[in-house]
Amino acid sequence: MDQKSRRKEVLDEYRQHPPEAGVYRLVNNRNGKALLGSALNLPSMQSKLDFAKKTGGLNALDRKVHADAREYGVEAFDLEILEVVEVRPEMTRAEIMADLATLEALWRERFEPALLY
Questions:
Q1: Residue 17 contacts residue 96 (beta carbons within 8 Å)
Q2: Rounded Cα–Cα distance for residues 64 and 43 (Å)
Q3: What is the pTM of this model?
Q4: What are 13-57's pLDDT values in tens digits?
Q5: What strand order describes the sheet that includes 77-85?
Q6: Around Cβ 117, how many Cβ atoms within 10 Å?
Q7: 79: burial class by Cβ within 10 Å (0-12, 13-18, 19+)?
Q8: Domains and CATH numbers, the chain
Q9: What number of CA atoms fall less than 13 Å from residue 64's CA on the CB side?
Q10: Do residues 61 and 72 make contact, with C-beta atoms less than 8 angstroms apart?
């Protein structure tokens, strides 16, 4: 299989099975604070956290949690998936992002602001 046909195959596979998009919470288990966010690719968020835990580096994490990650260690953080968005093939990136922003705002209302980064 040549490179061009392999690329087409990978793109077709991606379009048929896009990564899960949704709302997540990065929880500091030591002080109870959490970073609420949304992502087009939830598995990549888990990968970033796993990488940070493996290397001890903070660059894979949001800057808002860096101070606590230095104080408590990256191991103090866990990722919770709060909600997954149903992404339909006809949806544009902008439509997905708008849905994610709305869901994140709704989830933000459920948590005490003092416990969010």
A1: no
A2: 20
A3: 0.83
A4: 766 666 899 999 999 999 999 999 999 999 999 999 999 999 988
A5: 34-39, 21-28, 77-85
A6: 16
A7: middle
A8: 21-115 (3.40.1440.10)
A9: 12
A10: no
